[in-house]
Automatic annotation (TrEMBL):
It comes from Ahrensia marina. Its EC number is 2.1.1.297. Substrate binds at N197, P198, P199, Y200. The gene is prmC. HAMAP family: RF_methyltr_PrmC. CDD domains: AdoMet_MTases (cd02440). Residues 117-204 form the Methyltransferase small domain. Residues 12-82 form the Release factor glutamine methyltransferase N-terminal domain. Methylates the class 1 translation termination release factors RF1/PrfA and RF2/PrfB on the glutamine residue of the universally conserved GGQ motif. It holds the Pfam family PrmC_N. This is Release factor glutamine methyltransferase. SUPFAM superfamilies: S-adenosyl-L-methionine-dependent methyltransferases. The lineage of its organism: Bacteria, Pseudomonadati, Pseudomonadota, Alphaproteobacteria, Hyphomicrobiales. GO terms for molecular function: nucleic acid binding; peptide chain release factor N(5)-glutamine methyltransferase activity. It catalyses: L-glutaminyl-[peptide chain release factor] + S-adenosyl-L-methionine = N(5)-methyl-L-glutaminyl-[peptide chain release factor] + S-adenosyl-L-homocysteine + H(+). Keywords: Methyltransferase, S-adenosyl-L-methionine, Transferase.
């Protein structure tokens, strides 16, 4: 326990961080302070409310001060703490992965009925997750469908490493195969379902993104080329060779890309069977057969 002028309670630390974040113009100072304090001090929200006088150790004070400074520099909270929950799974992050977003859960919700239908029909469902990052999409589906298997691919070895670590963390590794690949380059099998949340931001737009994204997210996972459609063009033109009969493909899209992405898949012989919007009612996911 700390003593004297260096002593600090979890309640005081929380209030101080809140104020610093407000002064810095952060959008969610209360949430940011609470999450960072919890990970620095192991104090839950309930404990912070019911026992605000609990003293922090010197190591906890130092860690929390470092967290606060990094957040003021606009490093995202979940990069600071090193993980983000997605579909009920805590997923580790590294410099090669994007932070999984709640909006992407829309894609999982959309395809799960098909996965269950596939399992009911044949006893299994094989999934290919292109550009897997943390493994969020594939692992979320496997957690809900015990008879599904997933092949996860990524161009970045460090992303694949993190995805496999996350699979082990949730005891899903026996149903996961990883391939380092530039889209379909090193893929050879056919699958019941292909999924991807590819880079879809136009190159020129990246420099105008918020600091939290522009300076901390891997640009390889953001940059979709001149129009933001490069990955969709590759995936739509090649995926038929990697789908089983009656197989389907689903992709996440940018809010203004529904028509252009649908056109690419239509030109490749696919038909859109479902489209979903995200929590802000923006177009977010498309399903093709």
């Amino acid at each position: 326990m700390t003593n004297g002028s260096d002593a600090k309670s979890i309640g005081q630390a929380y209030r101080d961080a809140q104020q610093q974040f407000r002064d810095a113009g952060l959008e969610t100072p209360d949430i940011d302070a609470a999450l960072l304090l919890e990970h620095a001090s192991d104090a839950t929200t309930i404990e912070r409310i019911t026992r605000p006088e609990r003293q922090m150790t010197g190591a906890q004070i130092s860690t929390f001060a470092n967290f606060v400074e990094r957040r003021i520099d606009r490093e995202p909270v979940h990069r600071i703490i090193g993980e983000r929950e997605f579909y009920g799974l805590a997923l580790g992050l590294n410099e090669a992965t994007l932070i999984p977003r709640p909006d992407t859960e829309i894609l999982v919700d959309m395809v799960l009925p098909f996965v269950q239908q596939c399992i009911k029909k044949s006893g299994r469902c094989s999934i290919l997750d292109l550009g897997t990052g943390t493994g969020a999409i594939a692992l979320a589906i496997l957690s809900q469908a015990p008879k599904a298997t997933a092949t996860i691919t990524d161009l970045e070895p460090k992303a694949l490493e993190m995805a496999l670590t996350n699979a082990e963390r949730h005891q899903l590794q026996e149903r996961v195969t990883s391939i380092q690949s530039d889209w379909f380059e090193n893929v050879s099998e056919r699958y019941d379902l292909i999924l991807s949340n590819p880079p879809y931001i136009a190159s020129e737009v990246i420099k105008a993104l918020s600091v939290d994204v522009r300076d901390y997210d891997p640009h390889l996972a953001l940059d979709g080329g001149e129009t933001g459609l490069d990955a969709y063009s590759i995936i739509s033109s090649q995926c038929a060779s990697y789908l089983k009969t009656d197989g389907r493909i689903a992709v996440e899209i940018g809010f203004d890309q529904k028509n252009s992405v649908t056109k690419l898949f239509n030109q490749a012989g696919f038909k859109a069977i479902e489209a979903r919007t995200d929590l802000n009612r923006n177009n977010r996911a498309l399903f093709f057969t």
